[in-house]
Design goal:
The protein has six helices and seven strands, in the order αβαβαββαβααββ. By secondary structure, the protein is an alpha/beta fold. It has a seven-stranded mixed beta sheet, with helices on both faces. The termini are far apart.
Length: 231
């Protein structure tokens, strides 16, 4: 069983390899990243301020930092070091990094950012609604947010059998856990689209569009493009 310290201790760096071809999700990781980058550039003017919460090694922050003033926050100092290195290598000068727990009160004033990313984050937080309220607080009233969750409908597992492995007992436990591998079930929770919608409503976000990633019969990820305001 993996404990909650895996993120703060930097051990998660060895687990999170989204761009490696052996990762069964590497194709849709790339698709989701490219869609978000395209969407941000289409909706947010150059030079605006962007907050990337739980953005890890800067897969989205670093390319955006060529055109925006990006603040990348993560609980792992090693992840942030990797982002800083990548920013130097790719001439992305407008990146600021900050080590923090995205599940706590954010150290930013109200209405600070023009845009916000929360990608692959909510499933790791004990109180996602509290985090969403903090996101809305620091986002400008006319700002935009890109927020996603992993779906707890386990039918997407059939498209990615390598994710689970061959042991029948592991399949049963992962299926019952809503697609969460057994060793992660104490610290990760996946959500249904209706639960996600309710969380966004509780956080007072208005959804402009929904995007699904994964097999056509059942999304692996659901992404919402939102703005502050009542649903």
């Amino acid at each position: 069983m993996i404990d909650g310290d895996v993120f703060r201790s930097n051990r998660y760096v060895s687990h999170f390899k989204p761009d490696q071809e052996y990762n069964p999700f590497h194709g849709i990781y790339a698709e989701k990243r490219d869609d978000i980058l395209t969407s941000v550039r289409a909706q947010v003017p150059a030079g605006a301020s962007v907050l990337d919460l739980g953005g890890g090694m800067g897969r989205m922050s670093v390319p955006l930092a060529r055109d925006y003033h990006v603040t990348l926050c993560d609980i792992s100092t090693r992840m942030l070091e990797l982002a800083e290195q990548r920013a130097r290598e790719t001439d992305s000068p407008n990146l600021t990094t900050m080590q923090l727990d995205a599940g706590s009160t954010l150290p930013f004033a109200d209405d600070t950012f023009d845009a916000l990313l929360s990608i692959d984050l909510l499933v790791h937080l004990a109180d996602p609604v509290a985090a969403l309220n903090e996101m809305r607080r620091v986002l400008k009233p006319d700002g935009a947010a890109w927020i996603d969750i992993s779906s707890n409908s386990p039918w997407w597992l059939l498209r990615y059998p390598r994710y689970v492995g061959r042991r029948p007992s592991r399949w049963v436990t992962t299926w019952r856990g809503g697609g969460v591998l057994p060793e992660w079930q104490s610290i990760v929770r996946h959500y249904s689209p209706s639960e996600f919608h309710a969380m966004l409503r509780a956080g007072r976000f208005s959804v402009g569009s929904w995007h699904r990633y994964g097999p056509p019969w059942c999304a692996k990820w659901v992404l919402a493009v939102c703005r502050p305001g009542a649903l």
